[in-house]
Amino acid sequence: MTEMQYRRCGRSGLLLPALSLGLWHNFGADHPHKLKRDLCAKAWDLGITHFDLANNYGPPPGSAEEAFGKILQKDFKAHRDQMIISTKAGYHMWDGPYGEWGSRKYMLASLDQSLKRMNLAYVDIFYSHRFDPNTPLEETMGALDFAVRSGRALYVGISNYPAEQIKKATAILRGLGTPCLIHQPRYNMLQREPEVGGAFESADEAGAGTIVFSPLAQGLLTNKYLGGVPKGSRATVNHFLKESSIDAATVTKLKGLNAIAEKRGQTLAQMAIAWVLHKKSITSALIGASKPAQIEDSVGALKNAIFNAAELLEIEHVLKKQNEN
């Protein structure tokens, strides 16, 4: 069995597993509870100690936290001090003027609701899920600071923040005495905005760790789409991955990447995860799964997470060639 790696999160005392389990997909009320329990159990057995949620994960919003709360009480109650549990607030949760974005009222009310749904006294990490252009950043960061000082959270983070706002947010938190632990952006071989926009550098300079979500590009970086879009796949039922985006040129690119993965003795998914983790700025990668075997496959990426210069050049060639077409 592959041994889990644990990495220091920025300039903090906290270690995170190289792979963390995201409870975004497959943890809503539209999926059987047994599947959710099995996914969490498999992750735990493989050394994944970090479980990542948000107030709006479902559907419906809040149902992922409710499901995890039940799992926690039944299966993991004795292990709470060995677990990292995170949640977020920022996207729409309830009607009216106080149900989304970054006001102090919304952030703290949402956190209280999340704690109640999960039957927890505190979360380990509480995030501002998105930058709010209409609320002073000092107010949103002040709410995060208060969450820690009031005992509702141990650490705080930010998610989906542009590089310039990362700099400002982390400076405010540092001044308040509650340093930003972590930043969470979308990042994978096909979506590389944090690396070109300066988000990684901004987090590094602030001493924050980085945990990336969607390392498999919503499942696109797997062998599922090497022959096009199969019937019933996520691209046909999920609006986050559109069937129209998987054209012939994209399939050609996926086949090129898969050929490199095969030479490395990995699946395409394993290589995509390993590629993300080889970046020195990244503390952990958030994975999702629809079956326990997928978690096992993802953890298998750690068996070969080192790339030589020729492999990295070959990957860049495949990606660049595609972008030129």
Structure, described:
This protein is of the alpha/beta class. It has a single domain (6-218, 268-305), classed as TIM Barrel, CATH 3.20.20.100. Helix content is 42%, strand content 14%. The chain has twelve helices and ten strands. The chain has helices at 33-45, 63-76, 104-118, 137-149, 163-176, 193-197, 199-206, 234-237, 248-263, 268-277, 292-299, 309-324, and strands at residues 6-8, 15-17, 19-22, 50-52, 84-89, 123-128, 153-159, 180-184, 209-212, 284-287. The strands form two sheets. Strands 3-4-5-6-7-8-9-10 form an eight-stranded parallel barrel, surrounded by six helices. Strands 1-2 form a two-stranded antiparallel ribbon. Helix 4 (137-149) links the parallel strand 6 (123-128) and strand 7 (153-159). Helix 3 (104-118) packs parallel to helix 4 (137-149). It is globular. The N and C termini lie far apart (41 Å). The model has no long low-confidence stretch (mean pLDDT 94).
User: Uncertain regions: pLDDT < 50 for 5+ in a row?
Assistant: none
General shape: globular
Q: What does the main sheet amount to? A: 8 strands, parallel, barrel
Quote the CATH topology: TIM Barrel
Structural class, by secondary structure, is alpha/beta
* Oligomeric state of this protein: single chain
Question: How many independent structural domains?
Answer: 1
Quote the distance from N terminus to C terminus.
41 Å
CATH C-level class: Alpha Beta
Order of strands, main sheet, comes to 3-4-5-6-7-8-9-10
- Please give the count of helices: 12
Instruction: State the order of secondary-structure elements, H for helix, E for strand.
Output: EEEHEHEHEHEHEHHEHHHEHH
Residue share in helices?
40-55%
